[in-house]
Amino acid sequence: MGLKGDTNNDGIIGTLDVTRLLSYLLGLTGMNSDELNNSDVNNDGNVSSDDVTHIMSSLAGVPGYTINQPEPEPEPEPEPEPEPEPEPEPEPEPEPEPEPEPQPEPEPEPEPEPEPEPEPEP
User: Fold this and answer.
1) Mean pLDDT split into 10-residue runs, the chain, 122 residues
2) At the N or C end, where does the chain have fewer CB atoms within 10 A?
3) φ, ψ at 104 (rounded to 5°)
4) Is there a contact between 40 and 7 (Cβ–Cβ < 8 Å)?
5) C-alpha span between 44 and 50 (Å, rounded)
């Protein structure tokens, strides 16, 4: 949607817009839908000499002839940035295996007692 009153779409409301609108009303030039929408400055749904009067009066600063611009459409909210993926937690270091407890040394087997010597017979 363009600027109301800017019938030639140059971004400025001025006498060139009045000339363009008069040329259209006299059938000398055509207008596309955007230009026609911009030309209906009194918002009555018709493009006529009343719009020419309105633009000229507004340019001259005549009270009551302001050109109300439509409210701009609000900018859409930007999409939130996705949260970064969390870093994977590092795998824990494996715990070292405990050192085996030293085995007690086996007790040496007792030496067999010597067999008693037989007593001499008397």
Assistant:
1) 86 93 94 91 92 92 84 80 83 80 75 71 66
2) C
3) -65, 145
4) no
5) 10
